[in-house]
Amino acid sequence: MICKIKREMKRIAALLFLVMMYLPPIILCGQQSDLVLAEKLMNEGLYELAYDEFIEFAERNDDSPDVAKAYYLAYDCLFLQGRYDDAVLKFKQFIRTFPLSPFAAFAHERMGEIYVKSKHYKKAKGAFETFLKIYPENEKAEDALFWLGEAHYNLKEYEKARYYYKLCIEQFPKGTFYDYALFSLGYSYRDEKKYDVAEHFFNTLIDSLPKSSLVQEAHMAIGEMHFEKKAYNSALSVFSQYRERYPKGTFFDKSLLYTGRIHLKKRENEAAITAFQTLIEKFQNSQYKNPALYYVAWIHFEQNNYNNALQYFTLVDKTSKLYYPSFYWSGIIYERQGRKDDALKQFMQLSVMKGAGVYRNDALYERARIAYEEKESQKADSLVSVLGGTDRKWKALLLKGNNFFEKEQFAEAMEIYTGIVRSEANGVRKDAIYRLASSLYKTGDFKKAEEYFNVYLTNYPDGEDRKEAMLLFAECAYKLKKWKDALERYRNVKEQFPETKEEKLALMGEGWTLSKLGRD
Fold first, then answer.
1. Structure pTM?
2. Domain count for the chain
3. Within-domain flag for 326
4. Which of 31, 108, 156, 197 is in Cβ range 3.0-4.6 Å of 189 for a Cys bridge?
């Protein structure tokens, strides 16, 4: 009884709505008025109310020729509400109940769409293939061809996807999905980095269907592809053309972001700031505002304009993914400004923030680094232990090893360095190899030290400690009485690093080695 009252109240509300929306009001009687009401509700996007009306019509008029239509449209309302699980069950039930109804074909096709939207792409392929086999001439064949292409596309089966997109275009040159098929063809080639072919299809869409809702996005896709190819000048031109053609375009703000990024890539910082600043000022509610703020902050940071950088980092919204890196770099700025207490406070806050992700670990690392610098080893060690198995763990452990090294506690340092070298800590493995070699040298194990210096010099030709490593590599040969090797290595240091401290030491080493060889 209560359900019936609620349904009737909804129906009355729906009627009042339609009377307000349509003048003169709909004046129909009996069964037809109920069905018209339901369809009007559906067309207005009031799917829940429409569903109730369709079901009520079908239950009251089970002998009506429109009963199958009513049930189908009711279940379609579930689909349009995004209630995909319920809709699939109802469409399956519909096909069993009304197998000869023309709406059975529509139910088959809708099930395929549901599988696509719920990311069950293999099921979607099966549903659309069955539909096209049973109903090749059905009015929904165009839909099925397009969505079958989408199913293959999402499974990265690009050739098959393109086959169905092209069929859709060829068989339905004036169809509903013509522009969508062209657009998806472009994207399928873009995903495979076949940019020239992709651009052809995007341009075909732009030129042949200038009023399509996808034209602006196709235009942007061309610019983005030029950006991905690092063809920055042509990308700038495409984005500029977009803004000229669509002064109130949907992607105007995005085009400004890309323009700023391109200028940044070209190291045209002032032009980059102008683009980003335009975005920030004109599009206060844009999803690209926070990235623009972050980029402007980063430009100032790299130019050591720390006050300006800090101003923009602090403007990044808390809801943005860029909030945490902005918070982190603000801490770095405080430290560079000599405001160590503010920096520590910043890192402490970040290290306990929920959702900070990797930046929480970065903050813990910075706290450990500062503690080691302040000779607060126990506190620093405790922070390192908190990092556990994270990526920052190895960098923090390197700090711990360096702390032991500076205290000349080489055995403890070597234990840590060895652990890092044996790990997959690619980010700090290079430094650990150099430090391990140096520790071995300090403890007089010249043979092993020579081995690790050789590993460092062979694998890291651009390593920042290369000068020192080459000199110590030569010293190892000298200590091991490998005079010819030592002489060659000292001379390499002289040649590669003239007018440096290492050159002077290498010159002395060369002299001592020559004396050992009995040469002048």
1. 0.76
2. 3
3. yes
4. 197
